[in-house]
Amino acid sequence: RFISKHTETIEKEWESKKSSHKTMGLAKVERPCPKYFLQKHSKEPKPFEGKPFKCRENSGQVTITNEKPIMGLQSKKNFVHNNVMDILMKVPKKPVPIYVDTKRGNKNLLEPSGLVHKYLKKKDFGKTPQYITERKEEVKRVQEEYDAYVKEYMRKGAMKQLTEEERDAVLQGLKKNWEELHHEFQGLSVVIDSLPKKNNKLRLEASMKNLEKDIDLIERHKTIYIAHN
């Protein structure tokens, strides 16, 4: 096995340092003087040494030793009667409203629970909020501007308003066309095994969807304008 050539030198240095510390503490530590030996109760906490108490001078009159107090003072106040009157005139304390939410009688305060309709006592209860009134006025103003715009175009002859009879006739015609397409759609074969059948089905579905949009548009609007061609 490998052995270093510095082994003996290291062992000598280690032993030389170790021998100087075999006793408690370092060998070169200065020893304490015998005069300062540990005395009894020297490490116990010492009591607080405060300043001597000095009484301050009294600014008021000092009672004389031979002075006698006033004797025989009596009060005509009837304490029993006053206590009875105070109790009779006292306003009784109102019980705190509570509610019970379990069969075992678990009590909770009623006011912060949300069961009391406090909003009924508000000053603006039952009145229309300000923002709704403003919104209605805004909608009314926009509708008036639109009506004025339409009347101007109608005066120029660019637009025409459909009458109720014309609107009903158009609506009935659209529904009739939808029924015819729906009848044709119901007559298609169940198995779509060729490209012409597939194209025919897609055409019928698109036509029915467009008719449904037109019918819904006319039913939702009572007033309809059309442009002159």
TrEMBL record:
Q: According to the UniProt entry, which residue ranges have a biased composition of type Basic and acidic residues?
A: 1-18
Q: Which UniProt keywords apply?
A: Cell projection, Cytoplasm, Cytoskeleton
PROSITE patterns the record matches: ENKURIN (PS51665)
Could you confirm whether the keyword RNA-binding appears in this record?
A: no
**GO MF entry, a single one:** calmodulin binding
Report the domain of life of the source organism: Eukaryota
User: Where is it found, in Gene Ontology cellular component terms?
Assistant: acrosomal vesicle; axonemal microtubule
Location of the protein in the cell: Cell projection, Cilium; Cytoplasm, Cytoskeleton
* Residues covered by the Enkurin domain: 134-226
Q: Where is this region: Disordered?
A: 1-26
Say if the entry is tagged with keyword Ribonucleoprotein.
no
UniProt xrefs under Pfam families = Enkurin
* Official protein name in the record: Enkurin, TRPC channel interacting protein
- Which organism encodes this protein? Callorhinchus milii (Ghost shark)
